[in-house]
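Regression test case RT-17, inverse folding.

Input:
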C-alpha cells in the first residue's frame, strides 16, 4: 500500500479547484489515480473517464471561451514517454510530472505550444518517472545531472492534489549526482518547508514588476506573496534564485525593475547575502502565439508590434539587439549593487 501524502494548506492562498475532471482509464491502475478519483468524487466535482486526454473536446463557441474552460479543467493521466528532453539553459533535462497550470499568463509559451490542450494535467506514475530519472543520473556519473521541474507546468500550483513535488524533492535529496530545479509563481510552498532536501533542490520564484503581474498574469500569486515565499524557502535552507521574465520594455521599465530588485532585497533581508542566481528572459512572441493570445484575450495590451522587433526566423520576434543590450546592461549593473553574491545566470 503506497501512502499518499496530502497537506493542509494555508487559508490565505488561493488554491486551484477544477470545475470538471477527466481521468484517463489507465490512471486508476495507480494509487495516486484512485486517490484523486476519490478526492474529486467527495467534492462532487464531475468526473468523466476517458481512454486518453487526446480525445477531449472542451466546449465553447470562441477561442476565449474554450481557453478559460480548459483552464478550469483538470486531467489525471499517465505519462507515457519517460525519455528526458534537454532543457537548456536552465538545466540538463526536463522532469515532467504535470503539464500546463491553472494560471492564465498571457505571454505563456505553453499556451501557444499546447494549443487546445491547454488544460492542466497531472501524471500519476510519479514512481516510474523518478525511476527513469535515477537511471538517467546513474548513466552520467560522475557528472552532476540537473532536472527542471517547471519546463511544462508550474508544479507548485498542482501540488495540493498530488504531493508529487514533495516526493520528488525527497527523491533528489538521496541523489548525490542529481539536482532538481523548481520555478514557480504560486505561493503554496508550506508542504516543502519541513522536508529534508539536502540542498539538492533550488527554488526560483518567477517575478516581474507589479504592473506586468497585474496586467498579464491572471490567476497567479501577487508579487508580495512570491517574495515572502522565497524568504521562507531561504529560511528552510533551500538554495534559491529568481527568474525575471518576461522582461518587457515600456516607458517606466528601468524605474519599476529597480523597485522590484529593491523589494526583493528588503524582503530577503540577511538571506539576500547568499549566492543568488538571476535568470533573465526577454519577452518574445511568435506569429502563432500572437494570434492565439489575441483570440483568447481580446482586450490584451501585450506588445506584439513585429515592426519594432527583430525577426529571428520561424515567425519568432525578439527585442532588437540595441534594446536587448540596454536590458542586459541594466540588470548586470543593478543586481550586484543590491546582492553581493547575486549573479546573472543567463540572459536570453
Ligand atoms: Fe504559464 Fe507559468 Fe503562467 Fe502557468 S504560471 S500560465 S506555466 S507562465
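Golden output:
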Amino acid at each position: 500500500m503506497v501512502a499518499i501524502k496530502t497537506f493542509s494548506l494555508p487559508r490565505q492562498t488561493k488554491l486551484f479547484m477544477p470545475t470538471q475532471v477527466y481521468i484517463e482509464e489507465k490512471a486508476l491502475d495507480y494509487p495516486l489515480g484512485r486517490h484523486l478519483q476519490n478526492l474529486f468524487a467527495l467534492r462532487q466535482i464531475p468526473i468523466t473517464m476517458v481512454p486518453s486526454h487526446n480525445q477531449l473536446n472542451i466546449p465553447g463557441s470562441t477561442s476565449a471561451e474554450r481557453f478559460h474552460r480548459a483552464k478550469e479543467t483538470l486531467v489525471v493521466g499517465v505519462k507515457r514517454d519517460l525519455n528526458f528532453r534537454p532543457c537548456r539553459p536552465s538545466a540538463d533535462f526536463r522532469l515532467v510530472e504535470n503539464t500546463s497550470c491553472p494560471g492564465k499568463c498571457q505571454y505563456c509559451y505553453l499556451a501557444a505550444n499546447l494549443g487546445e490542450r491547454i488544460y492542466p494535467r497531472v501524471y500519476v506514475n510519479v514512481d516510474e518517472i523518478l525511476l527513469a530519472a535515477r537511471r538517467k543520473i546513474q548513466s552520467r556519473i560522475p557528472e552532476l545531472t540537473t532536472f527542471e521541474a517547471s519546463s511544462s507546468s508550474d508544479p507548485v500550483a498542482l501540488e495540493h492534489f498530488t504531493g508529487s513535488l514533495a516526493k520528488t524533492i525527497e527523491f533528489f535529496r538521496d541523489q548525490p549526482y542529481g539536482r532538481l530545479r523548481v520555478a514557480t509563481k504560486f505561493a503554496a510552498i508550506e508542504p516543502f518547508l519541513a522536508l529534508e532536501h539536502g540542498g539538492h533542490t533550488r527554488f526560483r520564484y518567477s517575478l516581474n514588476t507589479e504592473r506586468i503581474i497585474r496586467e498579464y498574469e491572471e490567476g497567479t500569486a501577487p508579487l508580495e506573496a512570491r517574495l515572502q515565499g522565497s524568504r521562507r524557502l531561504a529560511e528552510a535552507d533551500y538554495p534559491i534564485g529568481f527568474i525575471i521574465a518576461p522582461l518587457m520594455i515600456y516607458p517606466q521599465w528601468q524605474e519599476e525593475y529597480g523597485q522590484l530588485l529593491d523589494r526583493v532585497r528588503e524582503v530577503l533581508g540577511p538571506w539576500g547575502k547568499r549566492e543568488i542566481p538571476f535568470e533573465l528572459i526577454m519577452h518574445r512572441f511568435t506569429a502563432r502565439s500572437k494570434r492565439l493570445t489575441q483570440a483568447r484575450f481580446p482586450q490584451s495590451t501585450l506588445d506584439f508590434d513585429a515592426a519594432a522587433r527583430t525577426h529571428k526566423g520561424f515567425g519568432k520576434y525578439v527585442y532588437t539587439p540595441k534594446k536587448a543590450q540596454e536590458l542586459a546592461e541594466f540588470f548586470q549593473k543593478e543586481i550586484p549593487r543590491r546582492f553581493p553574491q547575486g549573479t546573472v545566470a543567463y540572459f536570453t
